[in-house]
Design goal:
Layout: E1 2-5, E2 32-35, H1 42-60, E3 65-69, H2 86-96, E4 104-108, H3 117-130, H4 135-138, H5 153-166, H6 173-189, H7 192-202, E5 207-209, E6 216-217, E7 236-237
Parallel strand pairs: 1-2, 3-4
Antiparallel strand pairs: 5-6, 5-7
Helix pairs in contact: 1-2, 1-5, 2-3, 5-6
C-alpha cells in the first residue's frame, strides 16, 4: 500500500495510479492512494488510513507488517511539498501498531531533512510504546483526535476513487464507499467538470509557490482563499525539473 503525491502522473516518478492494482494473478494486492495535488496534510492521510489502509490490512490479516517510513510528505519538505505533521506521523504509526500483534519492521526511508526530525522522533515514541515500554520515561506524544477527521475535497475524491476500484478485490470496502458517496458524493464531485475545463485551457501545469504557507499548488486558483487577504509571492517552478 502506498500513499503518495501523484497529480494524474505529472508528479515524479509518474507511477502509482489508483488503477495500478497488480497483475498476473496478484490483482488487488497493490493498493495505491494517489493525491491529486500538493499540500496534503494530516486529515487526508488519516482519513485514507481509516477508509482504505486499515480495512484492507485487517481483512488481509498479515503475520508481519513492514512500514516503509518515508518522510517526504512531512511539513516543510521542499520536494514532497505536503503537510504531514509529527502528530500525523505518530497517529498513523499508532494505527498500524494494532496489526500483526505488534510485529512491525520499520525501515527509515527518504525525506530526511532537518524539519523531519520531529516526525521521526514522534514515530519512534509510538513504536517503542507498541512494544510495551515505560511511557512515563518516554514522555507522551500528541496524536490527532481521529473521531472528527474531515478530509479535504480533493482528498475525499482520491479516497472515493480508490474505494471504487479496490472494492472489486476487497468487498469489505463496499460499505465504506456507499456511506461516503451517499454522504459527500455530490459535494466531492460538484465542480469536477469546471476544474477539468479550467485545466485544459491552462495547458501544461505550472506549479506556484504560495507566499503564505510555502506550499506548492499546480494552479494559482488552488491557493487558499485566505491568501487574498495577504501579500502573495508567486514563483514559477520549472515543470521539467
Amino acid at each position: 500500500m502506498s500513499l503518495h503525491r501523484h497529480e494524474d502522473g505529472r508528479f515524479y516518478p509518474g507511477t502509482g495510479a489508483a488503477d495500478e492494482v497488480g497483475s498476473m494473478g496478484a490483482e488487488g494486492y497493490c493498493v495505491n492512494i494517489p493525491w491529486s495535488r500538493g499540500g496534503v496534510g494530516d486529515k487526508d492521510y488519516i482519513f485514507a488510513f481509516e477508509q482504505v489502509v486499515l480495512p484492507i490490512a485487517l481483512d488481509f490479516n498479515p503475520d508481519f507488517t513492514i512500514i516503509s517510513a518515508g518522510f517526504d510528505a512531512a511539513r516543510g519538505d521542499p520536494l514532497g511539498c505536503c503537510d504531514v505533521t509529527p502528530a500525523g506521523y505518530a497517529s498513523m504509526t499508532q494505527m498500524l501498531s494494532a496489526l500483526s500483534g505488534g510485529k512491525l519492521l520499520v525501515i527509515l526511508e527518504g525525506g530526511m531533512m532537518d524539519l523531519s526530525t520531529a516526525a521521526v522522533y514522534a514515530c519512534i515514541l509510538q513504536w517503542v510504546k507498541a512494544l510495551g515500554q515505560n511511557q512515563v520515561l518516554l514522555g507522551e506524544s500528541h496524536v490527532i483526535d481521529m473521531d472528527n477527521t474531515v478530509p479535504s475535497k480533493s482528498g475525499l475524491r482520491s479516497v472515493l476513487d480508490v474505494l471504487k476500484i479496490q472494492m472489486n478485490f476487497w468487498p469489505t470496502l463496499e460499505t465504506n464507499f456507499t456511506k461516503l458517496h451517499s454522504k459527500w458524493g455530490s459535494y466531492a464531485f460538484q465542480d469536477t467538470r469546471k476544474q477539468s475545463k479550467k485545466r485544459r485551457k491552462t495547458g501544461v501545469p505550472i506549479w506556484w509557490r504560495c507566499g503564505q504557507n510555502s506550499l506548492l499548488y499546480d494552479y494559482i486558483a488552488d491557493c487558499p482563499s485566505s491568501c487574498v487577504q495577504n501579500p502573495v509571492v508567486i514563483t514559477p517552478v520549472d515543470v521539467d525539473s
